[in-house]
Amino acid sequence: KAGVTQTPRYLIKTRGQQVTLSCSPISGHRSVSWYQQTPGQGLQFLFEYFSETQRNKGNFPGRFSGRQFSNSRSEMNVSTLELGDSALYLCASSFTGTGGSGNTIYFGEGSWLTVV
Amino acid sequence: QKEVEQNSGPLSVPEGAIASLNCTYSDRGSQSFFWYRQYSGKSPELIMFIYSNGDKEDGRFTAQLNKASQYVSLLIRDSQPSDSATYLCAVTGGGNKLTFGTGTQLKVEL
Predict the structure, then answer these.
(1) Are B38 and B102 in contact (CB under 8 A)?
(2) Closest-CA residue in chain B for A102?
(3) Among A4, A61, A115, B54, which one is most buried in terms of CB atoms within 10 A?
(4) pLDDT tens for the 110 residues of chain B, in order
(5) Residues A4, A106 contacting (CB under 8 angstroms)
(6) Are A112 and A91 in contact (CB under 8 A)?
(7) For residue B53, which of B37, B38, B69 has the smallest C-alpha distance?
(8) B99–A103 CB contact, under 8 Å
(9) Which residues of chain B neighbour A104 with C-beta distances below 8 Å?
């Protein structure tokens, strides 16, 4: 069974540019969440999508956006990149949209973004 | 007060010993609790999750949850050098939004 797949794995962008990251969840999983990990701030929640609807959003500026497609694949976009956006961006996949028993959450390998 | 607190470590244990990792959380409405292991330069790998009070065992790993004390722990028996990593505690409040602690660095020494 394939895991969570994220593309691209590594990318370098210039300040002011925009970037789109892609995530394919585990087959059958309908919930996709995005996280940013930096040495200073740790792992922080960006947003979650379930059945193409954003269910939850973290405390990030509007430059960070996302969407989910009917096949549960998700993309996140960061516009007007800043140096501080350099981070590991992680996608997490889950079967259900609710917590509780059996709702395990798995991470992809991540996309390393460097903004120069 | 941070929502999820962990001792950053490093926690050093000799090979073969039991490593005990602790985590406290502030939101009494938290429902599910996760332990992830993260090697340097890699993504978090799910080790265990627990949602009921008590112990849950999986191989060398045991997760313990005490909701009254808002405390969750992870015990690693027969620690191996390959267990050396950062261990992240995370909680959810019913959805899939994980709130993470800052992680505890574990070093298993030969």
Answers:
(1) no
(2) B49
(3) A4
(4) 669 999 988 999 999 999 999 999 999 989 899 999 999 999 999 999 998 899 999 999 999 999 999 999 999 999 999 999 999 999 998 678 899 999 999 999 99
(5) yes
(6) no
(7) B69
(8) no
(9) 46, 49
